[in-house]
Amino acid sequence: MNIKKTFGEKIFDTINGFLLLCLVFVTSYPFLYVLFASVSKPSLLMAHEGFMVWPLGFFTESYAMVFKNPIIGLGYLNTLFVVVAGTSLSLLLTTLGGYVLSRKMVLWGKAIVLFILFTMFIRGGMIPFFLVVRGVGLYDSRLAMIIPYAISTYNMIIMRTYFAGIPDAIEESAKVDGAKDFTVLFKIIVPMSMPIIAVTILLYGVNYWNSWFSAVMFIRKRELFPLQLILREVLIQNNYDSMTRGVSMSNTEQVGLTVKYATIIVSTVPVLLIYPFLQKYFVKGIMIGALKG
Question: Domains in the chain, start-ordered, CATH in brackets?
Answer without folding.
Answer: 61-291 (1.10.3720.10)
